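User: Predict Molybdopterin biosynthesis protein's structure from this.
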Amino acid sequence: MDTSLSETEYKKYARHLILDNIGDSGQKRLKAAKILFVGAGGLAASSIIYLAASGVNYLGIVDNDIIAYSNLHRQILYNNKDIGKLKVHVAYNKIKEINPECSVCVYPFLANDNNLKDIIKNYDIVIDTTDNFQARYLISKSCYLQNKVHIYGAVQGFEGHISVFNYKSGPLYPDLYPQSLNLNIKECDMFGVLGITTGIIGMFQAVEAIKIVLGTGSILSGHLLVYNLLNSSFKILKIVPKKNQNLIDNSHSNRILDSNIISNKSLSLLMNQSTVILIDVRQPEEFMKYHLLKAINIPLKHIKSRKSINFIRDCLAVHGRDQKIVIYCYDNLRSFVASQILYKHQIVHYRLNN
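Assistant:
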């Protein structure tokens, strides 16, 4: 690939060229970079736009999804005229409008273990803009086997996460979310998301890709950046790549362990031996439809409140060692998040694994 800059490109990227950390050589690196997106939804939308506009001249997109009205509030690559079209085809045309020199390869099918490894080998960096855990495990595995950098992003409600995996032998995605958790839901479908959240996190992913290409700045390898829009806060968690898959908060000594997981059979035995408080962390309408016998409902969004934490502590204080707290949900993600919150408050508990 010819990485020399044309007269038009010198004009187009003039504000890049005067930056000490980019300059002529850096812009040539951006032009030569090969970046693959797995997923063409909300995270990809803003990231694709900025990388194409920044002068990245080789982009790939894997996605088999069709544009729907429910996508438009966050997937800014698309509009009403695109409803019913394949996302990758519309994205291709939008990239060409932004950067006509960019070579764009689209893969209009679902990524799987067989095809992804053959696609990834042609790229330097993989930007993970999927919305489910199984796809992320697949991307992590493929990037590890092909020695490619994996830039992760995820959103939920008003919060987003970003990290970089498999960078210079750094942690992998399963170090953050061990596969033993059996997580299998789509965050946006289950929890909802403010549209702009995806745009912000997607841009952060683009930033990490640019820093890696340029060889400048601090890369989010070994760390998880958590951004909350409601209070404009940033928090950085350290990811420790150990066999027990611990996630350690820099500001706390607590660790999120798998050792507190119990099965339905173990729960029955526990209830015969001790006083057990079952806490269902689903929404009230879900709880009303079905819940385990004698369970109480503390929705996930309320469990970190002072009132809820004090209630749980009071329950433990009444019965002492004979009192056991068990967190559960029909999916394991919400119970896992609730477990993190209780660990943060140093509350000993169990988590029911479905």
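The CA atoms of residues 114 and 248 lie 34 Å apart.
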